Amino acid sequence: xxxxxxxAVLGLVSAMAQAAQHTPVCQLASQQAVSWDxxxxxxxxxxxYPGKVEACQARMANLKQLQGYMxxxxxxxxxxxxxxxxxxxxxxxxxxxxxxxxxxRGEGAGKAYGxxxxxxxxxxxxxxxxxxxxxxxxxxxxxxxxxxxxxxxxLALAPDNSYRILLAALTEGIPEVYRQNANGASNxxxxxxxxxxxxxxxxxxxxxARAVINANCVGKCSASSRKAFPxxxxxxxxxFIDVAGKTEAEALFFEAALxxxxxxx
Length: 265
Fold this sequence. Notes:
Elements: H1 6-16, E1 21-22, H2 36-47, H3 53-71, H4 79-93, H5 135-145, H6 159-173, E2 204-205, H7 206-209, E3 226-229, E4 233-236, H8 244-261
Antiparallel strand pairs: 1-2, 3-4
Helix pairs in contact: 1-8, 2-3, 2-8, 4-8
């Protein structure tokens, strides 16, 4: 694909957003080819606002840090995965300028996980780039990464840990499992919902992939709001997945911007 302006890139994103599953704009087995200097103008145009200089600087610094982690990580082996990681961070931490140390607004006030756990005394509200929440998710992330997150949940706010938790949450399926039936029942022991179920180097369905973060049906929910995935279970259809459309739009934007910044789109 020939080089194009950022307005053209945004137009491409808008057109692509009409189709849930598509072929990524380019093939990037590594993010090392992505130039931050080439990437930043597109990100700044989309995620900065007139007169908000300090907020813009913070946002760009945090996204640059994330891009640096991905460029050094062989596990980020497709532009689709990188785009979905960026999109998840934007959706989850927008109110905190995309910070790896983002803390849930109100620290879970009014929610069960916002109260001290009776066994550990800790509170397991959303922390970090993926907004890790609930004691069982802290436990699983800690086991996968060799971190005492259950005992010290604030470790999730350290940038290195925040990145590792983000990647593990998406690729290992920390937050969610497939539902056992169309009515949404789950014993928490089913197959994990992973980004790789919906994203690869050749195909990407970013809206459905949002179920990695939240597989509960939102809105008016019924058996017809879910669909079966053979051998795995049930997930909401895209219209009933929390912020699926916003995640898709952001992922499509980042995909196009990453390809252009790498000279591949």
